Amino acid sequence: MRQGEIKMAIKIVTDSTADLSPELIQRFNIIVVPLSVVFGSRVFADTTDFRGTIFYDKVKEMKVHPKSTQATPGDFTKVFKPILDAGDEVIYVALSSGLSGTINSAANAVEELGAVDRVHIVDSRNLSMGIGLLTCRAAEMVGKGQTADAIVKELERLVPRIRVAFIVHNLDYLYKGGRLNVAQAVMGNLLNVHPMIGVADGKMSVIEKVRGKWEKALLELVAVQLGKPEKVDPHMISITHSAGVPESKFLYDKVAKIVPEANIVTTEAGAVISCHCGPGTIGILYIEKE
Asked: Are 34 and 46 in contact (CB under 8 A)?
């Protein structure tokens, strides 16, 4: 930086599908753009106070299965413009382009604002705390005085090393969301089938189907994700759940024994993620070592 220049601050932005906890948002000073869930004609923002049992109680009350909607260019403009007006830069860590058009809304907002050189968009190619891990890493780098270009380069290097797996408690929400037909849902629930969902090439895919008791499914999740603990970066491991507090405590203890040096955080999935997977769904997410 040349003498007399004013160094721009860097603001880290993500969207609500990152499933960051209020504590992480506050600790890292992260700005979150909410997506929405729609019950018929009523729209609710995907905020941290509309999660878990509060969200599922609303589903029961409304008696209609919610649908998720992406953030609009206007939503991003409201967040980006004040930052730009203050003379600062933005790094936005986005929900996978393979899962939503939200990243396109952000790009449209940036173009309208004429700020392509000051708003840096990173496609996480992931969801939930797969995004959140990258976002927290970006915020840590800001705290160390790294430039926006250096942060973006590092995040893009980490994207293919994010490891995500969720186990689904039952198939009701996968059916209601249109991902299964009624025969698949009924038969799967009768046989106690628990799909394990991962992310590959920016899209969700079924890793395996675990049949049997729920505890067996949770243990299989641990085995799949932490079978090679020497490859797990202990800097931050997330246990993310949707109204699955008992399961999160169970997994926390398992993870702590396998990777004792790990910084384990527990977060709750937001309404957008939850309306696709259902209560009890839980995952383990981390960055793999090089």
From this structure: yes
The top-level CATH class assigned to 161-287 is alpha beta
Q: How many residues does the chain have?
A: 290
State the span(s) of the chain assigned CATH 3.30.1180.10. Answer: 161-287
Q: Please state, in angstroms and rounded to a whole number, the distance separating the CA atoms of residues 178 and 13.
A: 31
CA count, 13 A, side-chain hemisphere, 223: 10
pLDDT of 5: 47
User: What residue ranges of the chain are covered by domains with CATH 3.40.50.10170?
Assistant: 10-35+70-159
The domain made up of 10-35+70-159 has a fold known as Rossmann fold (3.40.50)
pLDDT tens for each residue of 16-59: 999 999 999 999 999 999 999 999 999 999 999 999 999 999 99
Return the DSSP state at 163. E
